[in-house]
Design a protein that fits this description.
Elements lengths: L1 H26 L3 H6 L6 H28 L4 H17 L1 H10 L6 H8 L4 H38 L8 H48 L26 H8 L9 H9 L6 H32 L10 H9 L2 H39 L5 H22 L7 H25 L5 H20 L9 H19 L11
Helix pairs in contact: 1-8, 1-13, 3-7, 3-8, 3-10, 3-11, 3-13, 4-9, 4-11, 5-10, 6-7, 7-8, 7-13, 7-14, 7-15, 7-16, 8-11, 8-13, 8-14, 10-13, 12-13, 13-14, 15-16, 15-17, 16-17
Catalytic activity: L-proline(in) + Na(+)(in) = L-proline(out) + Na(+)(out)
Keywords: Amino-acid transport, Cell inner membrane, Cell membrane, Ion transport, Membrane, Sodium, Sodium transport, Symport, Transmembrane, Transmembrane helix, Transport
Membrane topology: Multi-pass membrane protein
């Protein structure tokens, strides 16, 4: 029983490390290769890489857990995300792919912004890089929390005599494997592993709800109405206007997520963006529906069988252990690890690229060689991971809570900034700095004041940043766009 699960997990780990070694041989000689895969990603790889790095453990833990606890009303988060992702592919993806290359071949989001607004280049690169590193430390921590929960929940039954069930050991193992292939293979390794991980996640999120509802011993499909929660299957039960706004506003975050939009910069051509978009949205639609089905059907199964699940965010792990052959259980746990690792690796790489390109090369070693820059990138990846491990050390942390804070921070800080910088020629460098600072400060203040309980902080942050950019740009526009930087 235990052996089959462990074999599946071991095969998954070996595959991830093998991809890392392949990528190391193909694309880590230059900064462009290490940070963007040489701008030559196949549309399918770019699509699933963007999706897998986006969804993370939230898709298999946080969203099903929210639906398990509160019912179908929580599906509005998924609906808002789907709409936001689609608009992001339409508005941002083709423009960012074209303009990031035209404006000095920018390799990072801060570098693109500094090339777009050269009169405020230093301020933009410094502030945006700082925001990226700080929020990604929190975001990466959410993935490590998911990894810790996986080991603490799943492994006691598999290896009762081995201390793998320890929460912190689970975090260290998760971080260790991700660091191995990310530090070695860079962006190409992250993108290729994301593609494989996205495929695994898709299969798991189709398989799990179907087996829970209709498989042997499941039969939850006919008992959904038996869940003792009023309006459990209603999309509007207990939903207020502010609650609805907070849920669908998650979609606003897409425009400002550096680890997602950097994939747009790496697609092989602008023409390939539409193909990548169609693949990405098809994948996302199926996965979100699967996560919703898992949360609803999982609660019905638990009620039907008189079970107790103390942490709703572990319902995927509990059902994987109960309902499947050990080899399949190992595959499903690998899907969860895939969701976790795909996001962590993407976030670590983007954070390290900002530390390397926007701090080290900007202030310390402007003439650093390509090999030196790549090695500093690897060291930066390690440092960000260590900070995230410290943040994730509290076993009471909630995956969805950590993700929501970081998602809002990025969405408000970079969302209006990216959209307007790509679409509004009269935007100025001063306006860009104002939007970045105001968006970040508004989100931080909203969280600190405890107002997130009645309105998700991304809403005031996004609005405030947009207004700040518009007002300051109008006040500082001099009639011509500053010349773009060329390096």
């Amino acid at each position: 029983m235990k052996t089959g699960t462990l074999i599946s997990l071991a095969a998954y780990f070996i595959l991830m490390l093998a991809i890392g070694l392949y990528a190391w041989r193909k694309s880590t000689d230059t900064s462009e290769g290490y940070l963007l895969g040489g701008r030559n990603l196949h549309p399918a790889v770019a699509a699933l890489s963007a999706g897998a790095s986006d969804m993370s453990g939230w898709l298999l833990l946080g969203l099903p857990g929210a639906l398990y606890a509160a019912g179908l009303v929580e599906a509005w988060i998924g609906i808002g995300l789907f709409v936001g992702a689609f608009v992001n592919w339409i508005v941002v993806a083709p423009r960012l792919r074209q303009q990031s290359e035209e404006r000095g071949n920018a390799l990072t989001i801060p570098q693109f912004l500094s090339n777009r607004f050269p009169d405020k280049a230093i301020a933009l690169r410094t502030i945006s890089a700082l925001v990226i590193v700080v929020f990604f430390a929190v975001y990466t921590a959410s993935g490590l929390v998911a990894g810790g929960k996986l080991f603490a929940t799943a492994f006691p039954a598999l290896l009762p005599d081995v201390p793998l069930s320890d929460y912190m050991l689970g975090i260290w193992i998760t971080a260790g494997v991700v660091l191995a292939y990310t530090m070695v293979g860079g962006f190409l390794a992250v993108s290729l592993t994301d593609f494989v991980q996205g495929c695994i996640m898709l299969v798991a999120l189709v398989l799990m709800p179907l087996v829970v509802m209709f498989g042997a011993g499941g039969e939850a499909g006919g008992s959904l109405n038996d869940v003792p929660v009023e309006g459990f299957l209603s999309l509007t039960q207990g939903l207020t206007a502010l609650g609805f706004l907070s849920a669908v506003a998650w979609g606003l975050g897409y425009f400002g997520q550096p680890h997602i939009i950097v994939r747009f910069m790496a697609v092989r051509s602008v023409a390939a963006v539409s193909t990548a978009r169609n693949i990405a949205m098809s994948w996302m639609g199926v996965c979100v529906l699967g996560a919703v089905g898992l949360g609803i059907a999982g609660r019905a199964y638990v009620e039907r069988n008189g079970m107790v699940v103390e942490d709703p965010e572990t319902i995927f792990i509990v059902l994987a252990d109960l309902l499947f052959h050990p080899l399949v259980t190992g595959f499903l746990l690998a899907a969860l690890l895939a969701a976790i690792m795909s996001t962590i690796s993407s976030q670590l790489l983007v954070a390290s690229s900002s530390l390397t390109e926007d701090f080290y090369r900007l202030f310390l070693r402007k003439k650093a060689s390509e090999r030196e820059t790549v090695n500093i990138g690897r060291l930066s990846t390690l440092l960000v991971a260590l900070v995230a491990i410290v943040v994730a050390s509290d076993p009471e942390s909630q995956v969805l809570g950590l993700v929501s804070n970081a998602w809002a921070g990025f969405g408000a800080a970079f969302g209006p900034l990216i959209i307007l910088s790509l679409t509004w020629n009269r935007m100025t460098g001063s306006g860009a700095v104002a939007g970045l600072v105001v968006g970040t400060a508004t989100v931080a203040a909203w969280i600190a004041l405890g107002w997130s309980s009645w309105l998700y902080e991304i809403v005031p942050g996004f609005i405030a940043a947009w207004i700040a950019i518009w007002l300051v740009s109008k006040a500082t526009w001099k009639g011509t766009e500053p010349a773009a930087a060329t390096a």
